[in-house]
Amino acid sequence: MHGAAGSNDLSGETMHMEPLAAVALRAGKPAVFEPGGRHLMLVGLAGQLETGTTFSMTLQFARGPDRAIEVPVLDNPR
Questions:
Q1: What is the rounded CA–CA span in Å between residue 33 and residue 20?
Q2: How do beta strands 2-9 and 14-20 pair?
Q3: What pLDDT sits at residue 33?
Q4: Per the domain annotation, does 77 fall within a domain?
Q5: Residue 75: per-residue pLDDT
Q6: Long-range CB pairs of 33-40, under 8 A, 24+ apart, other chains included
Q7: Confidence class of residue 1 from pLDDT cuts 50, 70 and 90?
Q8: Region 11-33: what's the mean pLDDT?
Q9: Which band of pLDDT confidence, cut at 50, 70 and 90, is reported for residue 4?
């Protein structure tokens, strides 16, 4: 899993992504991840993700314990 920040230049039909080493979180504020913006890339998957299922992911924090979450697999999440 890698975090990435993306930006679209639709006029030239190019997309640029840069890996993020970390994402700063602010107390009481959501960290938004979405297609075309900041998102997670899942690499090295053992198989395809099926719409309607979930998978487990562990979030690691610089200060604080790891947190396991369940992530839903959506069909065209936009």
A1: 12
A2: antiparallel
A3: 85
A4: no
A5: 84
A6: 34/77, 34/78, 35/77, 35/78, 36/6, 36/8, 36/78, 37/5, 37/6, 38/3, 38/4, 38/5, 38/6, 39/3, 39/4, 39/6, 40/1, 40/2, 40/3, 40/4
A7: very low
A8: 83
A9: low
Structure tokens that stand for 5 in this block: 């920040």
pTM for this model (two decimals): 0.61
Structure tokens at 77: 């999440």
Q: Name the residue with higher pLDDT: 14 or 75.
A: 75
Token pair of 28 as six digits: 């009481």
What is the number of structural domains in the chain?
Answer: 1
- Determine how many CB atoms are found less than 10 A away from the CB of residue 71: 13
Taking each continuous run of H as one helix and of E as one strand, the counts in the chain are: 0, 5
The three-class DSSP label of residue 48 is: coil
Domain that holds residue 66: 2-24+32-72
